[in-house]
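Whiteboard transcription, Tuesday session. T.W. wrote the C-alpha cells on the left side:
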C-alpha cells in the first residue's frame, strides 16, 4: 500500500528512519515517499489502461513542484483550479496540452493565462463563463479546447456533505438539461472548440457505482449532443477515488476500473478520449506529517498530548472530522500497529486527546485515541497526510508552515524549507517611517 513501515521498532519511509528526518529538519514536517507516489500513479494508470486515459493529477491535493515533477515523469498531466495551480503545473514541466482547468470562479486573467498556454482543456462551469471565455479565445486567434462541467445530480457514496459536488443545487457545473443550449451557443464562436464533457462527483467516493450512474448520464447527453450535430470527443470523469485512511477501507483502483471501464469503452473505441483527475488516492498515503509531543497534561479525566502540529498544518480533523491514523515513530515497548484502524487497542495503550498548539478549541488531530504510552519529546507520525495536508496549511496564529521532505530510497531531501518569520510579513508593506 505504501512505503511507511516499522523496522526494528522505528518507523521508516522507504529506507529512511523518520527519527533522522526529524533530527535533521525539525518538526512539524511533511514527509513523502517517492516510490509510493510513483507506484500509485502507475497502478492507477494500469488499472484503466483499456481506456488509455490522460491522468491529470489534481494539483490541489499536494502541489509541491517536486511532487508534480515526479508525477509528470510518470506520465501525469495536471488538473488545476486556479492561475496559481496553472503556474505550478507549467513550472514543474507539465506540458500545457496535458493540463485541464476547472473551477466555478475563474477570473478573466486566469482564462487569459490558460488560453495563452493553449492548455489541453478549459472546463466551463456556467453560461456567463462561456461568454467571457469566448471573448478571450476570439482575441487569441487560436483554437482552444473547451468542455462543459456537467452537474449529473448523482450522490457520492460515504462522501461528506462538505466535499460533495455533483448533486443538484451545488455551485459546481451546469445542470444536465442546460448543456445542449450551451453547445448550441458555442457552435458559431470563433476558435472555441467546445467538444468535451466533464463531471466530478465529490471526494471521496467510496464505491464505483456513482461513477457508473453519472457516466451513463453523461454518455446519454453526449449521444443527444451528437444527434444535434455537435462533436463530443472528450469525457473527463473527474477525481474522487477513495484512499485507505484505515487499512482496507477503500476500494482499489482495479475495483473502480472493473465497473467504469466497460461503461466508457465504447466511447473510446469510437475514437473518444478519457481524462481522469485523481488526487487523494495517489497522494494521501504517500505522505505523513511528522510531529513531536511538546507537553503531556491532564485536563479533567482526559490525558492531552500537545503536539507541535495543529489545524494550521493539517486541518482535516478539525474541519471535516476526518480520521487520520497516528502512531509514535518509536513506540514504547516496540508496539507496532498490526493495521491502521480507528478501533485499535493494544495492551498497555492509553487514550489520548492529541491537540495542536493553536488557540482554537477545535485544534485537535484526534480525540480519545488509543496510543502506546507517550513521553514528552516523542515523535508521532500522522498517516494519510499526503493529500489536502500541506495544501490546506495556513499561517494562522502567525505560525510557520512546515517543511516538506521527499524520500527516495535511503535519502531524504528538503523540497520546501520551513517558513521563517520574514516569510510571515514578506507581503506586508513597510510601516510608515520604518526602514523596511
Ligand atoms: N477534480 C476536481 C474538479 C476536483 O474538485 C477535485 C477535488 C478533484 C478532481 C480531486 O479529487 P480527489 O481525487 O482528490 O478526491 N479538502 C478535501 C477534499 C476536497 C476535494 C476538492 N476537489 C479533503 O481534505 O478531504
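and on the right, the sequence the group agreed on:
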Amino acid at each position: 500500500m505504501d512505503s511507511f513501515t516499522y523496522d526494528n521498532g522505528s518507523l521508516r519511509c522507504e529506507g529512511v528512519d523518520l527519527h533522522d528526518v526529524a533530527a535533521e529538519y525539525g518538526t512539524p514536517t511533511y514527509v513523502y515517499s517517492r516510490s509510493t507516489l510513483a507506484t500509485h500513479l502507475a497502478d492507477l494508470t494500469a488499472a484503466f489502461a483499456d481506456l488509455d486515459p490522460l491522468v491529470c493529477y489534481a494539483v490541489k491535493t499536494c502541489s509541491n513542484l517536486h511532487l508534480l515533477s515526479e508525477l509528470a515523469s510518470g506520465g501525469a498531466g495536471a488538473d488545476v483550479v486556479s492561475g496559481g495551480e496553472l503556474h505550478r503545473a507549467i513550472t514543474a514541466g507539465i506540458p500545457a496540452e496535458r493540463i485541464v482547468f476547472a473551477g466555478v470562479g475563474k477570473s478573466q486573467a486566469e482564462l487569459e493565462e490558460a488560453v495563452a498556454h493553449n492548455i489541453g482543456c478549459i472546463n466551463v462551469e456556467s453560461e456567463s463563463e462561456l461568454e467571457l471565455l469566448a471573448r478571450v479565445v476570439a482575441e487569441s486567434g487560436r483554437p482552444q479546447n473547451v468542455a462543459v462541467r456537467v452537474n449529473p445530480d448523482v450522490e457520492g457514496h460515504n462522501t461528506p456533505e462538505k466535499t460533495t459536488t455533483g448533486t443538484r443545487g451545488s455551485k459546481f457545473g451546469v445542470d444536465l438539461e442546460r448543456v445542449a443550449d450551451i453547445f448550441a451557443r458555442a457552435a458559431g464562436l470563433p476558435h472555441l472548440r467546445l467538444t468535451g464533457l466533464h463531471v466530478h462527483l465529490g471526494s471521496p467516493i467510496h464505491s464505483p457505482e456513482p461513477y457508473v450512474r453519472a457516466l451513463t448520464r453523461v454518455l446519454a447527453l453526449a449521444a443527444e449532443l451528437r444527434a444535434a450535430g455537435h462533436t463530443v470527443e472528450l469525457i473527463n470523469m473527474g477525481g474522487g477515488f477513495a484512499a485507505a485512511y484505515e487499512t482496507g477501507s477503500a476500494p482499489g483502483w482495479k475495483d473502480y476500473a472493473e465497473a467504469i471501464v466497460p461503461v466508457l469503452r465504447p466511447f473510446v473505441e469510437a475514437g473518444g478520449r478519457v481524462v481522469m483527475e485523481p488526487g487523494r488516492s495517489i497522494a494521501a498515503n504517500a505522505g505523513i506529517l511528522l510531529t513531536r509531543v511538546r507537553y503531556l497534561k491532564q485536563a479533567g479525566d482526559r490525558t492531552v498530548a500537545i503536539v507541535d502540529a495543529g489545524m494550521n498544518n493539517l486541518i482535516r480533523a478539525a474541519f471535516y472530522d476526518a480520521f487520520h491514523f497516528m502512531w509514535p515513530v518509536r513506540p514504547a515497548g516496540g508496539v507496532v500497529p498490526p493495521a491502521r484502524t480507528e478501533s485499535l487497542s493494544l495492551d498497555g495503550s492509553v487514550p489520548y486527546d492529541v491537540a495542536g498548539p493553536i488557540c482554537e478549541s477545535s485544534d485537535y488531530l484526534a480525540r480519545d485515541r488509543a496510543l502506546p504510552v507517550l513521553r514528552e519529546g516523542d515523535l508521532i507520525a500522522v498517516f494519510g497526510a499526503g493529500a489536502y495536508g500541506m495544501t490546506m496549511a495556513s499561517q494562522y496564529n502567525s505560525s510557520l508552515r512546515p517543511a516538506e521532505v521527499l524520500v527516495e530510497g535511503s535519502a531524504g531531501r528538503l523540497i520546501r524549507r520551513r517558513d521563517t518569520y520574514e516569510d510571515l510579513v514578506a507581503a506586508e508593506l513597510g510601516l510608515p517611517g520604518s526602514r523596511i
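Someone added at the bottom: Residues 58, 61, 79, 102, 163, 200, 203-204, 238-241, 277-281, 316, 320, 388 surround LLP (CB under 6 Å).
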